[in-house]
C-alpha cells in the first residue's frame, strides 16, 4: 500500500468531513494500518468556533497554502500541513458544502495532471470534477509539486447523513485497494448559478437531477429561478436567505448525461 494522507477540518464548519476522518482514523488503528496518515482537525480554532475561517486571523486556510512558517496563525498551520503532506504519495482533503447547502459526493481536482486523473479512477465515487482553480488550495499547491491530490466534497456543513457514509465507504475501499467496480464520469466544466436578487430560497431540484436550460430550480421569494444551462445538479442551496455575493443557488456540472 502507498502512503496516503487524509485531511479534514480545513474549514471549521464542515463537521461531516471531520466525523469521516475521525472514524477512518479509528478504523485504521483497529487494523494496525500505519501507512495512512489522518489529520481530522487541521484548523483547530476554526473547528472550535464552527466557522469556515480561523478566528485568530480571519483567513480562509484553503487559500494560503503552502503557507509561511513566520506568518499569521493560518499561514503557520498551512505551512506545517504542507510540509507533512508533500512526503505522501497521495493526499485526500475532505470537505463539505457550507451552511444551508449540500452536494453529492464528488472528487474535485486539477484533471489536467494525469496523476490526479489516475487517483480519481481508483476511487469508488461516481463523479470527478475539474476545479475552477483558486490558488492556495492544498490540492492545487500539491499538484504543482506533482503530489496526486484532490478534495472530496460531500453533503453540507450541517448535513451528516447519506453523503458522508458514501465517502467513508469509498475511502475504506481505496485504502484496501479494492476494485471500484465503477467507471468515473469526468466533469471537465461546471458553474455556479448565482443570479442577482435576494430573498428566501426554496429549492425545487434534487442532487444528481439532470436539468435543461429554462428548468425551474427553485423559488426566490416565490419568484421562479430558471437554470441558464443544461447539466447535472452537483449541489444546491437547501433553504434560507440568499445573498448572491456569498453563495449560489445551484452548482451545475456540464457534459453528456
Ligand atoms: Zn471546505
Amino acid at each position: 500500500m502507498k502512503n496516503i494522507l487524509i485531511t479534514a477540518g480545513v474549514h471549521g464548519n464542515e463537521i461531516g468531513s471531520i466525523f469521516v476522518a475521525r472514524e477512518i482514523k479509528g478504523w485504521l488503528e483497529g487494523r494496525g494500518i500505519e501507512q495512512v496518515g489522518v489529520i481530522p482537525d487541521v484548523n483547530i480554532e476554526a473547528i472550535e468556533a464552527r466557522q469556515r475561517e480561523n478566528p485568530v486571523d480571519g483567513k480562509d486556510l484553503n487559500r494560503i497554502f503552502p503557507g509561511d512558517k513566520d506568518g499569521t496563525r493560518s499561514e503557520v498551520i498551512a505551512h506545517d500541513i504542507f510540509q507533512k503532506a508533500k512526503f505522501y504519495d497521495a493526499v485526500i482533503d475532505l470537505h463539505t458544502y457550507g451552511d444551508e447547502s449540500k452536494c453529492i459526493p464528488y472528487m474535485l481536482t486539477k484533471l489536467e495532471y494525469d496523476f490526479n486523473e489516475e487517483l480519481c479512477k481508483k476511487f469508488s465515487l461516481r463523479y470527478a470534477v475539474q476545479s475552477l482553480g483558486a490558488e492556495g488550495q492544498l490540492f492545487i499547491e500539491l499538484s504543482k509539486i506533482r503530489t496526486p491530490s484532490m478534495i472530496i466534497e460531500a453533503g453540507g456543513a450541517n448535513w451528516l447523513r447519506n453523503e458522508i457514509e458514501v465517502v467513508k465507504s469509498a475511502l475504506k475501499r481505496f485504502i484496501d485497494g479494492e476494485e471500484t467496480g465503477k467507471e468515473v464520469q469526468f466533469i471537465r466544466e461546471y458553474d455556479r448559478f448565482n443570479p442577482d436578487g435576494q430573498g428566501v430560497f426554496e429549492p425545487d431540484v434534487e442532487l444528481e437531477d439532470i436539468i435543461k436550460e429554462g428548468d425551474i430550480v427553485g423559488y426566490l421569494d416565490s419568484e421562479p429561478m430558471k437554470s441558464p444551462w443544461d447539466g447535472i445538479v452537483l449541489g444546491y442551496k437547501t433553504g434560507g436567505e440568499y445573498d448572491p455575493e456569498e453563495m449560489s443557488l445551484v452548482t451545475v456540472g456540464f457534459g453528456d448525461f
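The chain has two domains: 4-187, 190-254. The chain has a mean pLDDT of 95.
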